[in-house]
Amino acid sequence: MTQNLSYLKESPSQTAGPYVHIGCTPNFAGIKAYGGDLGATMKTGAVRGQEITLKGAVFDGTGTPLRDAMIEIWQPDAAGLFASANETRGQADPNFTGWGRSAGDPVTGEFTFETVKPGAVPFSDGRMQAPHITVWIVARGINIGLQTRVYFADEPDANAQDPILIRIEHQNRIPTLLADKTGDAQYRFDIHLQGPNETIFFDI
Amino acid sequence: MSDSTQIGGFVPRDRDWQPDALTPPYKTSIKRSPQAALLSFPSTLSEETSPVFGHNLIGKLDNDLIHNYAQAGESAIGPRIIVHGRVLDEMGRPVPGALLEVWQANAGGRYRHKKESYLAALDPNFGGCGRVITSADGTYEFRTIQPGPYPWPNGMNDWRPAHIHFSVFGHGFAQRLITQMYFEGDPHIKLCPIVGALKSAEAVDALTALLDMHRTVPMDSRAYKFDIVLRGRRQTSFENRKEGL
Ligand SMILES: [Fe+3]
């Protein structure tokens, strides 16, 4: 016999189901609660840096947009600092939460985040990563939340140095991680769960 | 620090334990499951940080689903229960300040949602959502009514076991988790294709709450205990940094 490491097992995930909005965005679901939905606003005052609008939708393997998903994003401020108790490098912009949650449009499934262009943050070995936004997607039919990242198509130099992007074997899939600039301070990031344009999802 | 709030890389998620994306008996997973391998990397600050939710966020009735949607002087119909437990990480450390958001059907198995098609009656005094933040020792509790099982369109005659949905925020975005709590002894547990996405009886047990007579309030509410485990962080001063940094 040996000793036992006696670590606990992470709670197993189960799908968010079709009614995730009751719990996470109740006001969107028609249930007045909490004085408003969490994550509906990322800016609580005048913010530093470039304000941007990020839009997109999540598509299933048939190309149909999901209308029952919940999308969350998490990112640093324009200086690369997180509004987190774990941020030790400095004080993040006090008017920027860094966290957004969207139910998407009930008809088109389109989500919209009014945010700022994120600053760069270091990789685990200290090299700088390209500016990016972490995305987390749950919905009916998704057994465990899917994580991906939004990088920016208009940051080619930073993207070419990014410690994660340069290690991706299938470089032809990198465009699935790039938000396209569609206008002044407007970006689009569509997520494909399956198919020829399947988004790269992370296990990180 | 003895809790899980400090910085450090996350232990990789055990994909042999967590459900796969594609579980065909749960039909909706077929067209919503990625086919390519996930891209694995050690966590970075983007995953090791997380938004902060203070206890001042929580209103007086947020953790009382029996009353938080009810008319004054009234309460939701159904078996009154207290759900309580601890949020820990894989190292067994308590996770204080974790935000739990819960949602559920009413005692008849009916959700308050416009897409709901089950003919069971709505309870005018039950909304079905609540939230709570864990205390310094990682404990939480909320009060609700026991939800009913309900039918759902998958197979011709599939019924969900009674369950409460949980969304959990720990201290790193990498810990983000949504899951469901089941009730001990429910015969629908082993028939359900969503529960069936779990890979082992041990995983089903990890989501099945036990009746807890120690926390029952006589002549008021029964209690169920449900512990939640989030991904753990390494605790080491030997972090991976370039030489000289
Ligand atoms: Fe449900």
Automatic annotation (TrEMBL), chain A:
The keyword NAD does not apply. Pfam families: Dioxygenase_C. InterPro entries: Intradiol_dOase_C, Intradiol_dOase_core, Intradiol_RC_Dioxygenase, Protocat_dOase_a. The keyword Oxidoreductase applies. Residues 54-82 form the Intradiol ring-cleavage dioxygenases domain. Keywords: Dioxygenase, Oxidoreductase. GO terms for molecular function: ferric iron binding; protocatechuate 3,4-dioxygenase activity. It comes from the Bacteria. Belongs to the intradiol ring-cleavage dioxygenase family. This is Protocatechuate 3,4-dioxygenase, alpha subunit. It comes from Sulfitobacter brevis.
TrEMBL record, chain B:
SUPFAM superfamilies: Aromatic compound dioxygenase (SSF49482). Residues 1-26 are annotated as: Disordered. One of its GO terms (biological process) is 3,4-dihydroxybenzoate catabolic process. Pfam families: Dioxygenase_C (PF00775), PCDO_beta_N (PF12391). Residues 83-111 form the Intradiol ring-cleavage dioxygenases domain. InterPro entries: Intradiol_dOase_C, Intradiol_dOase_core, Intradiol_RC_Dioxygenase, PCDO_beta_N, Protocat_dOase_b. It comes from the Bacteria. Keywords: Dioxygenase, Oxidoreductase. GO terms for molecular function: ferric iron binding; protocatechuate 3,4-dioxygenase activity. Belongs to the intradiol ring-cleavage dioxygenase family. PANTHER family: DIOXYGENASE, PUTATIVE (AFU_ORTHOLOGUE AFUA_2G02910)-RELATED (PTHR33711), INTRADIOL RING-CLEAVAGE DIOXYGENASES DOMAIN-CONTAINING PROTEIN (PTHR33711:SF10). This is Protocatechuate 3,4-dioxygenase, beta subunit. The lineage of its organism: Bacteria, Pseudomonadati, Pseudomonadota, Alphaproteobacteria, Rhodobacterales.
